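Can anyone check this?
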Amino acid sequence: MSRINSRPVRVIASPAPAQSTSASVRTRRARHADFATLLRRDDPPSRDAPFDHHHREPSHEPAQDLAQHIGNASQRVVAAVLRREQQMLELAHVLARHIGEFASNAALREAGHWEVILRIDPQRLPGTQLHLTLSPAVLLLRFDVQANDTRELLLHHAGLLERELRQVLASQGEARTLELTVH
């Protein structure tokens, strides 16, 4: 024998067709009122009067003020995020260009294996050192980062930097395996 689980059910009856048009509109408004609408009402209903007699459309001025305030605040946040993203794009492009020039230098290529440690500009990436290892077949980049927020930023944009480097190396005819890590 199968078991049937019971669930609570709420039944809302539709308005009777004999009601007048304005009464059915009031009934619909009363039925669709939410808690925020009730809080926005100026005067509380008396206990004697039904809800329909005191229901008014809420004033849209406080909602518009709130929407404008949220819009202004979000514009500043979005502008800051876009500015940071643009800075990261520029940094990735500059790093890729300089590393690509270093890797494609004919004198360095003929010299064999290179290991270089560079301190990145503290204005751009504070507390960051780049360990670059260059061989004829491989380009290894390891970013050693002291600050957690800088590390998160590099981890978040590592794919962007890697794509930029691959484009620069491909445009210069360098077919090397590229490995990028952040510590």
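Reply from J.R.: I decoded it. Confidence is low (pLDDT under 50) at residues 49-56.
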